[in-house]
Specification:
Distance between the termini: 12 Å
Number of helices: 4
Shape: globular
Largest sheet: 2 strands, antiparallel
Radius of gyration: 14 Å
Oligomer: single chain
Strand order of the largest sheet: 1-2
Low-confidence stretches: none
Number of domains: 1
Structural class: mainly alpha
Strand content: under 5%
């Protein structure tokens, strides 16, 4: 049950971040909260598949700065791929995708860190 709650929290946080990036006109636009939730879900699914495929091919994303850069590029590509499947999501190029990927990653990390301080695993 805890894993399900973590997934729901991550989806809501990612959707809110997508809406914030949309409002800041940083190269990504979402039609509304419903589209943002669906976009967050599709991004998570496509991201999981891409990371699984990379692992299956023996390409591992390590830690550190290089791992973070590779993960951000993969996340940006996932946003660009998701743009093709969702009518409510529009990404204007790789720059908008990388900014959105950074914003989502930072905010989810902050929420996880804050919930960890409160003793809630995320």
């Amino acid at each position: 049950m805890g894993a399900l709650i973590s997934i729901v929290i991550a989806l809501v946080v990612a959707a809110v971040v997508l809406l914030i990036v949309d409002r800041l006109n940083l190269g990504l636009s979402v039609d509304g909260f419903g589209s943002a939730i669906i976009a967050a879900l599709v991004i998570a699914i496509v991201g999981g598949i891409v990371l699984w495929l990379l692992g299956f091919l023996g390409i591992t994303i390590g830690g550190g700065l290089l791992g973070a850069i590779v993960y951000l590029v993969v996340a940006a590509v996932i946003l660009l791929i998701s743009d093709r499947f969702l009518s409510g999501l529009s990404v204007s190029g790789f720059g908008g995708a990388i900014i959105a990927a950074i914003a989502i990653g930072v905010v989810i990390w902050l929420v996880g860190w804050l919930l960890g301080l409160l003793g809630i695993s995320f």
